[in-house]
Amino acid sequence: MLFEATDECTFPTEPAFLVPVEVKKTLQYGEDHYGVFASEPIPAQTKIWAWTDRVKKIHHTALGSHIKSNFGDDKKLIQLFLRQGFVLPGEGNDQVFNSNPTDAGRFMNHSNSPTCGPDGTLRDIQKGEELTMDYSFHGNPKWYRDICERYGVLTEAEIARNAK
């Protein structure tokens, strides 16, 4: 279940994150890759991120024109855009590509032993520990697979499969 931000939400260090975090390079995932790390201990079952207006919803039928008008033919920028976005599962949700270019949520990496799930932390998180999720939770519709293949980007489902 997604947690939507309200006027009462405060973001201690990064927009959309409800807990103190920092973004750091994660060379184990490749050059120029980043991850989200706890700035202090976080108890299990803590909501860590809120859905804000920073997440732009793009219907899959408009995705091609969005890419063209924002990135032209710059393949590296297009790949980055696709890598940092996501598709939610479920009827209706799987028709929309979600882009969050201005919040650190885009830096959450996949793990087969994730520290976080859709509803928050799965266990106690230590200060300095990376916040990760299982990408296999996200949607993987054909239009998403096709556009990722077109630009040479692994889908989140492929990343999850390759990590096993």
UniProtKB/TrEMBL annotation:
It comes from the Eukaryota. Residues 19-136 form the SET domain. InterPro entries: SET_dom (IPR001214), SET_dom_sf (IPR046341). Signal peptide: none annotated. This is SET domain-containing protein. It comes from Mucochytrium quahogii. The lineage of its organism: Eukaryota, Sar, Stramenopiles, Bigyra, Labyrinthulomycetes.
